[in-house]
Amino acid sequence: MSAKFLNLQNIEKRFAIPGKEGYIAVTNVDLEIKQNEIISIIGHSGCGKSTLLNIISGLDMQSSGTIVLENKHIEGPGPERAVVFQNHSLLPWLTAYQNIELAVKKVMPHLSKSELKERVMKYIEMVNLSHAKDKKPDEISGGMKQRVGIARALSIEPKVLLMDEPFGALDSLTRANLQEHLMRIQESVKNTVIIITHDIDEAVLLSDRVIMMTNGPEATIGEILEVNLERPRDRVSLQSDPEYIRCREAILDFLYKKFAKEDE
Amino acid sequence: MNLELVKKIALPLITLLAIVQIWSTIAGKVDGFPTPYNTYVAAFGGETSEGDEMIGVLTDPFYVNNQDDKGIFWQILASLERVFSGFALAIIVGVPLGLLIGMSKSAHLAFNPYIQILKPVSPLAWLPLLLYIFQDINLTAISTIFVTSIWPIIINTTLGVKSVNQDYLNVAKVLNFSPLEKITKIILPVAVPYIFTGMRLSLGIAWLVIVAAEMLTGGIGIGFWIWDEYNNLNYYSIIIGIILVGLIGFILDIVMGKIADYFDYRKQGRA
Which end of chain B is more exposed for a tag (fewer CB within 10 A), N or C? Predict the structure, then answer.
């Protein structure tokens, strides 16, 4: 396990506003992420957590600071940092299978036809969607769409999996189901995962560490919480686990006492 | 029986009766205006109400007497050839230009003002200039159709490109798509229905323009034919010409609509 896998140094993001001083969304973000680690970034809306994820994915550029992944500077998007978007972002004219195939074909052009098919099927099976592989996004439920999104992101074997409020648009039962999927897949794939969330239970259940962001503007990392829970984790028995309760309370305390936010 | 079906057949027939009635009234008041019956005879042959024997315009559409006297089929064919030549040119130039303007803000800034200024220019204003340039009936008609029908293609293609969801473009970015892959795999599937809407509008304009253009250029074509028949005092032919132009335009629009639906991913697999 390499200590310096993904390293964020002194990240700041300013948005230019014509005629005014720029708006500083996030500043002073220093973070080291270990290989195979699952971390959550949590904070109130407007704390710049999505901005931070976009910077790591390369879809957005930081104004200053550096990001290094395995000794290489990140200067733009790339398939080694796959993104699961909040609204799944599946191409509606392609079937679930074709959506995944599109990604695999592009990232692994050397694969033969049968290897390509095998790989796509493997990831469709991983999210239990073999039965819906020929359906288009419009024909499947929100949770299924998001599972295809996860399969697409994993199929290109990224070094880091970035998830931007991946289950935010789903109802709570579907969300729980997807969290189970994600934990089960993570057991076998062992990716490094960064999850943006505003759900405290989700953060504790899924992560090794929870990064808590202060409120914007000029948001930064407030506290980092280690979650010392054995895996596999079971959501029901965790409810009475003292470590789980401690983590929950620490985050609650941070979000609602130290950095409480009034409704605007 | 099915009431909707009866309505669908009966209501247009009632309208037709009203139209024929108004037409008859006008024919009775304007000296020399062809009556509905005489126009029907002029189209399909027979004996007019005045007792003149006539060969219908539509009974022998394929005749060729000489270079300047051909049946209605050849007139329409000549017009359609010009329309599709100009229309094809408009697609070949308009779609790539629309893609460029949709994808590049600089291209939008560079071209948009001129598109907006040239778009409302009447084909009749272009015609003398193009006739002067080409000194040829066919090229003039085709280029007139080109310059008047290209605008909806450009504008709709641009609109199609701009309606591509930013999320899809992010997918393209994460996968490091080349510009060409971005166009073929992300932009075109979204933009194609818009492009076809533009083409449908464009074909409609082209068919409108051809009649006017051919009246001025002469030679052959449905527009020329209508004008020629006017000069020969065959007023019934003008009415036959109007109905034919309308019917063909209607058919063109239906065919374009079907093609557009075929390429629209939102309508595929749904009847």
Answer: C
Residues constituting chain A? 264
Mutation choice for A interface testing from B174, B192, B194, B264 by most A CBs within 10 A:
B174
Distance CA B46, CA B23 (A): 20
Residue ranges matching CATH 1.10.3720.10 in chain B: 64-270
Tell me if ipTM is over 0.90: no
* Beta-carbon separation of B174 and A81 below 8 A: yes
Contact A79/B176, CB-based, under 8 Å? yes
Task: Tell me the pLDDT tens digit for each residue of B86-131.
Answer: 999 999 999 999 999 999 999 999 999 999 999 999 888 999 999 9
Number of H-type helices and E-type strands within chain A: 8, 10
Q: Do A92 and B265 touch (CB under 8 A)?
A: yes
Nearest CA in chain A to B192: A93
Pick the CATH number of B64-270 from 1.10.3720.10, 1.20.120.1460, 3.40.50.2000, 3.90.228.20: 1.10.3720.10
In this structure, what token pair is assigned to residue B248?
A: 């063909």
Contacts A–B by Cβ distance under 8 A: 47
Peptide linkage before A232 cis (omega within 30 of 0): yes
Chain A residues whose beta carbon lies within 8 Å of the beta carbon of residue B266:
92
d(CA A95, CA A102): 10
Using CA coordinates, name the residue in chain A closest to B178: A106
Show the tokens assigned to A84: 């699961």
Residue-range domains of chain A with CATH: 6-80+160-258 (3.40.50.300), 92-157 (no CATH)
- β pairing state of B53-54 and B46-47: antiparallel
